[in-house]
User: Fold this.
Amino acid sequence: MVVGLTGGIGSGKSTVANMFAHFSDVAIYNADLEARNLMNTSPEIRERLINEFGAEVYKNNELNRPYLANIVFKNKKKLATLNAIVHPVVHKHLKDFIERNANKSYILYENAILFENNSHLFCDKIITVTVPLDTRIQRVIKRDNTSCEEVKNRIKNQWNDSKKILQSHYIIQNLKLEDTEKEVFKIHNFLTSSKY
Assistant:
C-alpha cells in the first residue's frame, strides 16, 4: 500500500514523516530529496536541464538551486518544463523503491506537489498536513532565510489546502507537536489494521 503525505510548503510534512519513521514496518520515500539527488546524479536529467536552462544550472558540478528556483517560481511554463524533465525519472525511482520494500506494511510517499503532478494516482490513501498560511510563510522565511515574496511565489504554484483536503483520507493539523504525534499514531493504527 502506498500512502501519500502532502501539504503546502512550511506545513511541516517532513516533521510528520519523521514521526512515521519511528514505525519499523513503514518505508519512507521523500520525493523532494530523491528528486534533488537525481538532479545531481542522473546524466539524463543533467543533459536536459542544461539544454533547457543553460550551463549555469550546474555550479561546481552540483545543481545551482537558487538559479533554477529564480527562473521556475516566476514562470509557470518553465516550472512545467522542469517537472516534465524530472518527474518521470523520480516516478521510475519510486516504483523501484516500492518493489524493494514490498515487505513493509505501507510506503509513506512524501511529496509537496502530490496532487499538482498527479502523483496521487499512485496512492491508496492520502494524508494532508495543514497549518494556517501566515504560520507557513513565517516558518519558510525562517527556515530558508528567504523573503516573504519568494515564499508567496512558491505557494502560488501549489494547490490551496481546501482543494487538497477534499481529496484526502486523513488531515493532520500540525500546530502542536504532541497533538500531531497523537494523530500520526492514530493514522498508523488505522492503516495497519485489517479494516483501514
Q: What stands out?
A: Residues 76-100 form the longest helix (25 residues). The first strand starts at residue 2 and ends at 6.
